Known about the structure:
By secondary structure, the protein is of the alpha+beta class.
Amino acid sequence: MRRLMGGCLAMLMLFPILARAEFTEGRQYMQVPFPTPVETGNKIEVRELFWYGCSHCYALEPGLLRWLKKLPANAQFVRTPATAAPHWQIHAQAYYTFEALGAMGKLHDAFFKAAQEQPGVVADEKGITDFAARHGIDRQKFTEAFNSFGVRLKLEKAKQVNQDLNINSVPTLVVDGKYLTSAAMAGGEEPLFKLLDQLISKAAKERNKKAAKP
């Protein structure tokens, strides 16, 4: 019994150590070789790179939205559509069109679902425009926005971000432009959100340390 108690006590003493060592750079996350600028100013940026046609992105969405409700006040979430392939890029163009029209709240979730259930129906400009029209968006206004300079510019910016971060699989999350991870790397959805919390804290400490230098 004394041996059993001693073994249990030893394990209990190890728990804090194991908890601290739960996530390891190079395994559950990696540091980006060339960090990218953030868009969130004084707040820690949490960037998701996703594709509407990605089943893993779609599966992550409910948990991600729950986690965002508890996002620390010093952090801010941004999305960037992935652009690794031409059929990803047209969905990225759709994303920025929804944004330009102020229709993200109306179209984002519905388009995500459509891209999963009827991928061929929303695979080109006509199909995406038809989709938007079915959801109450004026067809001509959508077409004009889809092909506008502003949307094209944002698409090119997204391509550059994807290139800088070397994104070829999604969903991928990047904290403060320098710590990259995913559910696959972290070992699942729940570990991913715990890791993101830790990386936000890590990035905040690094920012504070940098700011404190003379």
